[in-house]
Write a structure and sequence with these properties.
single chain, alpha/beta, Rossmann fold, Dihydrodipicolinate Reductase, domain 2, 7-stranded mixed sheet, 6-stranded parallel sheet, about 35% helix, binds nicotinamide-adenine-dinucleotide, binds 1,2,3,4,5,6-hexahydroxy-cyclohexane
Length: about 350
């Protein structure tokens, strides 16, 4: 056990509990040594059966628990900044669930704090970069076989939104994935955002303006459109089609199972991200554990997390104004390349 990476997991809700299971039973090279959640019952439940784990209500107490060498942050987005700064203060490498920090000012404070350390400690949980289909699309676009990318058409549907989900979160929680995927796939920065919406679906909770249509312009002249619909009622569907000068490529259709009975054939649709992206989360966390044990930090950086938060914030402004909102990033510190993945 001695040379396994000792991980503290902060937040034991949907994602935290799944990551605890993954660290304990799926990936190799790590063990969960501490779990923190103010709802200690949730932490106890998620940690049940994990050998030698300590459960805390206070995240800082978990960071200071014996054997902690790295941190996985799976608390709600607004709690991430404090947790990241606490991890930096202790020199601990971090895998931080998206969004890095939902507001751009907070995300910039994180980038500045990491830059002052002079070394990367953060990998952000944009797991689509580890999804087999996204990786195939990325490698096809990078190969140049389809020529210059003109447009990405993206669909992002959830069955239902969790309690407390706000209209702003359609962009800064859900569309943050497409923002990161578009930056990564195209190697371009979004420069402006416009948001349009139909009348809200009657499936959406009162006051939630769902679905929406989000359009990004990018630094290389491409357009990225995203249908975000978090109360579709019927399935978890994530698709992306790249339209290029020499052809198009689409991913996201191949995740269903076709069940045939005497009544006919029926295609099953994933109901949530834990099913659709199960392999991607496994690969993401394994890559983090492997790199951390080698003293390296790879994958989406704090800068990528900051850029996504700035673009999302422009998107939230565009939701409110109905106008095209420009995106302005702070100067990129030397620590970060455009894409270290
Ligand atoms: N990558 C993905 O596809 C994906 C999917 C779902 C959620 N997420 C992200 O994971 C994070 C958690 O989301 P979730 O759906 O698991 O939420 P959740 O509400 O199910 O769980 C969050 C847990 O954190 C606890 N918590 C609150 N404040 C805390 C703090 N300061 N320190 C430690 N724990 C705290 C809560 O009590 C709760 O148990 C969010 O950042 C979310 O955006 C990512
Ligand atoms: O936090 C979740 C998560 O990021 C999912 O991957 C996304 O599909 C949801 O829309 C979002 O609410």
């Amino acid at each position: 056990m001695g040379d396994l990476l000792g991980v503290a997991v902060l937040g034991a809700g949907h994602m935290g509990a799944d990551h605890i299971r993954r660290l304990d039973r799926v990936v190799s090279g790590a063990r969960v040594v501490a779990v923190a959640d103010p709802e200690t019952d949730r932490a106890e439940e998620a940690a049940a059966g994990v050998e030698g784990v300590a459960v805390h209500a206070d995240p800082e107490a978990a960071l200071d628990a014996p054997g902690v060498q790295a941190v996985l942050i799976a608390s709600p987005g607004p709690a991430h900044e404090e947790a990241l700064l606490a991890a930096f203060g202790r020199g601990l490498p971090v895998l931080c669930e998206k969004p890095l920090v939902p507001d751009a000012a907070g995300a910039l404070r994180v980038v500045e704090a990491e830059s002052r350390l002079g070394r990367r400690l953060t990998q952000v949980g944009f797991m689509r970069r580890y999804d087999a289909e996204y990786l195939r699309l990325k490698s096809l676009l990078d190969s140049g076989r389809l020529g210059r990318a003109l447009m990405l058409h993206c669909t992002h549907r959830n069955v239902s939104s969790p309690p407390g989900f706000t209209t702003a979160m359609l962009i800064n929680s859900s569309v943050s994935h497409e923002i990161d995927a578009a930056r990564w796939l195209l190697g371009q920065e979004p420069t402006a955002v416009t948001v349009l919406r139909p009348g809200p679906s009657s499936n959406a909770p009162d006051g939630l303006l769902d679905p929406q249509f989000v359009l990004f312009e990018t630094s290389g002249g491409a357009l990225v459109d995203v249908e975000i619909f978090v109360n579709s009622g019927f399935g978890y569907q994530v698709r992306c089609e790249a339209v290029c000068e020499g052809g198009s490529a689409r991913i996201g259709d191949g995740h269903s199972m076709v069940v045939t009975t005497a009544d006919g054939a029926r295609e099953e649709v994933a109901q949530d991200y834990l099913v659709r992206f199960a392999d991607a989360y496994d690969r993401e966390v394994q890559a983090w554990v492997d790199a951390t044990r080698q003293g390296r930090v790879t994958g989406p950086s704090a800068w990528d997390g900051y850029a996504a938060s700035v673009v999302a914030e422009a998107g939230v402004r565009a939701q409110e104004s109905g106008a095209r909102e420009a995106v302005t990033l702070a100067p990129r510190p030397e620590l970060y390349g455009f894409d270290d993945h």
